[in-house]
Fold each of these.
Amino acid sequence: MNTNNKNYLASFEVPENQKKNPEVLRIILTEEYTQIDFGYVAEWIYEKGGWIRIAQNTFIQVEGSEKRYTMKEAVNITIAPELHHFESTEDWQVFTLTFQPIPIKDCVIDIIEVEKPDENDFNYYGVKLKDVKTIELINLSR
Amino acid sequence: MNLSKSAFRRYKVIDSLLRNPMRKYPTMEEIISACMQKLDFEPSPETIQKDIANMRLPHPDGFDAPIHYNRQRRGYEYLDPSYTLAGVSLRQEELVAIQEAVELIQSIGSSRISDKFTHAVEKLLSATLEVGQKKDDRLPVLQMMAPPPSRGFENFDLFYNACKERIPVSFIHFSYKKRHYKHILLHPFLIKEFENRWYVIGFSETHNDIRTFGLDRISNPLLLNKKFILTDREKRKAYQQDVYGVFPIPEAKKETIKIHVSQLGTHYFQAYPLHESQRIQKENYGTSHITFEVIPSVELARFCLSQGYHLEIVEPKWFKKFTQNLTE
């Protein structure tokens, strides 16, 4: 890793109609990868809180481009078809998805797990990244 | 540093020879001979060379000993004549005191001490190995609460450094009660343990106020290259000294809390003061009025509740009501 590269904590806005469980909590932009932290709260409608998993082919798309920034790593969530089962409806889980690096600039992105999603898939459209170079991180190594 | 007792004993011999002003530049043969005399053991030249190499290793693997082989004098020397292996020379009773202190630290338990401190303790232990003569297979005679490792404690070092170096931190926080997440930008100034739980306290940019966060509810902390917002010294001091617990009641100011305590309860308050500001005014039959000068906290309210009929909050009325509401 080139330590001269700067890593940024991006400010972002998720459109109201895209706010869901799991919630997009933090977006980090670097020249090597893009990291998104999510938080999931187990739901009472599911027996023992149900389960979560993420599709291997999850990707980011930047508005105005066809390029897909594919997922490189998933931490604290299993990759489909394997499931992460909760033990109760009170459980919670923070997980991190790492993607190929998107350009470090203000832009609008879609985070897409499934191209033709149902309500259970983790798709987010129109996430606005702004002032992306305002906050720099220290010693972020991966 | 994983140091055996015999190795450290040889280091001490080497150190004493190198510091002997009457016989400078000890040779390899002289070091081996001194080891034989003092340790009843003849180490090989390879062992001594290895010892010297280990002593030279920088912290934390070695002792940073500036040992140099002087070719002209054909012997070893310290390049820094003021260097000593132990840093300072200690008398026997001082070494015993250190040994006892180390035992006390060990009794606190590694779960309360991060890896960073474990090394320091290990080094201190190695330096006091020689006084551990009385050690046998008896179990420790001192035991303190040592809870198993808790979630989030792995971030202790990061927050400790952030407080010390004044570095803002970004992290994800989950509220057990509200069951929701928040991304927090914190300018931390204090790590506090209360009832075996760890908390970090600082100015939260997210809340534009001072906030307390349990380490167990914090995920993915990251250090930020951002100007640190330093909390006013008096406020920091208040969090350290004037709060029983970690969650002061919002908007509450330091004030006098007055409680009425039963006879039995009074014995315990006398024996175990709740706060350094505690003052007891005993009544004729052993009951008492007790006052504290503190910022009322959630933990203080819970403590009062836990005492049942042994304790009644007298003043302030709002705190009495706050405490009663906790049960509803």
Amino acid sequence: MNPVVPAIRKGDPAPDFMLEAVGGGRVSLQDFRSRPVLLIFLRHRG
Amino acid sequence: MARVRARQPELDAAGASLVVLSPEPPEDLAAVARQEGWTGPVLGDPDRQAFRAYGLGRLPWHRVFTPKTLFMYLGFMLRGRWPQPPGQDVRQQGGDFVVDGDGIVRFAFSGRSSDDRPPAADLVRALRGAAARPPAAAAGPGPDGRAGGR
């Protein structure tokens, strides 16, 4: 388990990730380069 | 999510992508994604690598059961629903981030309690700002959003 890093701030480079998507396939933040992206981190699935 | 979904046309107008990340495995998210009508990518992060990378850890207990969430949970239970399926971590911290086309964070919000989320208007404003920013000017903080570091 990696420790939590200090909070990300405005102006920081966004940490990349590579995660499995619903429906299959892996998705990276890099896949959205060249357009703005809104990342919503849910606390749980609802 | 409903707060953001209601602004979907404005996100589309800004050319923005909406990505949902959850600490659940993807196979557990498919049904709720369908039910809630989430249209963009929905990603499972059961190891919480992305959560940790964005500084999202676990809330202290007194920030989980706020008066607002207790009232909401009571409402769920009165309707015969358990407020949160077993096995989920009620202490997981949530957050919202806007990243521009150059990979720079333009808005950062880490929830201080279980019901702490930014107004959708702030997210839309940050996305518009990120969309309007030419790539050469993308470095350095802009005027939008609330900084993290809480």
Amino acid sequence: MIAPALFAVFAAIAVVSALSVILQRNPVTSALFLVVTFCSLAGIYLVLHAEFIGMVQVIVYAGAIMVLFLFVIMYLNLGRDIETGLQIALRRGVGWLMGFALLAAGVALFRHPWAAGPPAPPGPPVGNTQAIGLLLYSRYLFPFEVTSMLLLVAMVGVVVIARGRRAPGPAADLPPGAATGAEPRGDA
Amino acid sequence: MTPVPAPQLIALDWWALGAVIALSAGAMLLLLLEFVPAKPGSSRAAVLSLLTLAISAAAVFVARDARRSIFDGMFVHDGFTVFFTLLFCAIGAVSVLLSWDYVRRTGIHHAEYYVLLLCATLGMIVMAASNDLITIFVGLELMSLGLYVLVGFRRAHLESNEAALKYFLLGAFASGFLLYGIALLYGATGTTSLTRMAAFLSESPLRGNPMFVAGGLLLLTGFAFKVAAVPFHMWTPDAYDGAPTSVTAFMSAGAKAAGFAALLRVGLTALGGMPAEWGPILSAIAILTMTVGNVTALLQTNLKRMLAYSSIAHAGYILVALVAGGRDGASAALFYLAVYSFMNLGAFGIVTMLGRGREERVLVSDLAGLGFRQPLVGLAMTVFMISLGGIPPTAGFMGKVYVFKVALGAGLVPLVIIGVLNSVVSVFYYLRVTVALYMQEPQGEPTEVSWAAPAVVALLVTLALTLWWGIQAHDLLLEAQRSVMGLL
Amino acid sequence: MREYIPVLLFLLVAFGFAAGTIALSSIIVPLRRNAVKNSAYECGVVPMGDARQRVAIKFYLVAVLFILFDIEAVFLYPWAVAFRQLGLYGLVEMALFIVVLFIGYVYLLKKRALEWE
């Protein structure tokens, strides 16, 4: 009884804040509404007894990813839309068209019965983090270890792209104004 | 779905993971070597990368006849894995040789370049060697992340930045499609393991289920992007043109082969050959890819862009083999991929050598008169162009023969006719390069060639293989057939 | 659901405190607006230009590195919960994972990516 009610509350918050994300003019406000959306999604996960996903949703999405969103908004210094009316109208038109196409596809798909896969085994009543841990570190060990290489590549990549300052060398052929706030990359 | 298994020490066959371990260790060693100062212009990173690639190729070659499925199918060591691991190591090694001098003269000589190249190669191997969609996705991301950064490695060049941004944004979307497809397939079948998926499908009338079909199509979209098939090819010319040419060579061969490898494994293992619903879609994509690639290539004056569209067209020929389906189609695709990789590496390899210092010459007209002034460059480029155009006695011809033969065997006459017509069209622009080499006078300053021993070695290897497989195609085809038969 | 009642109480108190403070301050604060008072407070200096300025790319580097190590921490969480059952095997695989990331960390230190200057 209480679970459907909680779901309804979280879902309503999620839908309203998601709408606010796209309806707000100020990008920072949009980003903050996105945080609300993420948090209410985390609430839905909790209602579904997916505590780990809920936790990850808060830590990674609402925490880390949103910080990055806000940073990016601030790098670009987004003020107002600079596009002319025609561009916006065209974009809106295409957007509506795509939206309706997706809606139509959804309706067409949901009219067929969606045969479900094999039923999931009954999980522990609460606290599936341990179950995830046991699976992740036994059956999914290999992709887990490859993930560490993935994170390593990301580290190297971000240093190359965003920083790339090396031992002093002849100045690189950086055209003035090509990059702001970053030193030109020297020759090794 | 089994209940949570009790974790236990898996009896690991470490040797089967040899290539993966060697590449990871090599990449990390390169990073740690940053602490040991090297002389300016030292070739340490390149030498170490070559060594790493050689070790991983050797590891997989020594155990080429063994068959293992470890980590519950997360990593499989079978003929398919061996074929593609050797192919990716070779592509990586040729790319390192081509980069050796190129990165130095264009001022991007950093250890990170080789680290990313090794990691991207690792990602390709993981993609080809896994029987699980999760691992395939992680491998794909590892490859893509490395490539995004490599494409934008010339930070001082706006074109390179633009290329990286376009590739990254569209690639991220494609990854999203792929992941969504995996999620739907998991929802429909209850597993991400390809073998379990096949078992589930064999006893379930799920084939026409919307969730399953939608998942499969989203998966196809994700892979079509990675192999640059029309209409998911938009990023290709810009990314190939803006990237450092040595990176273009690497990704045009490696990323395409890896995308097809994963697609083939999913198709053959999980879906029991290419699913019937995919037939018309794959045919349409193949026709579009061949035609758009070749016709647009006709209009290009920039050599890198022309080769980019040509690589799109070649994805179309491989798709024809996939439409034919089954093990024959797969082995024809494998054969074509190996052949394509080396002739394309050779063609881009020559482009890396054009120009001196930071200057790069990438226009078709820059080749004017080069055939007589630099006979080796002229000869090699001519052979690669003939091979890409599919004219005997080169490997490219044999590749097309096998693909079209398999397609005819499957009764795909219209597709073969379109393919042959496309090959004829393609000859026009490939021959334009040869005409420029031998029959045009250079306008303005003639193009200089940056000679370097490693690049020459790479050129000779690709040239030899392109000619050898043109004459002795049988061995490679047998190898391709054996590796498809041995799918675990 | 019963386990979440403390969380719910916590949320209620948090929201209530925030809402109460805002409400209280809007009630008891005397409102006298003028142009100088509405301008941004810059330690008594007359503000120049917009408060929104382009931020240096250095922040981006820090943000991405933060996410990467954040993800590492997320992986540690289910591992820690399942640690007793995983035993030595779990310890070894997590050590491998962390060693790879530690090499990345050492590399970042060497590249002075974490220094601000």
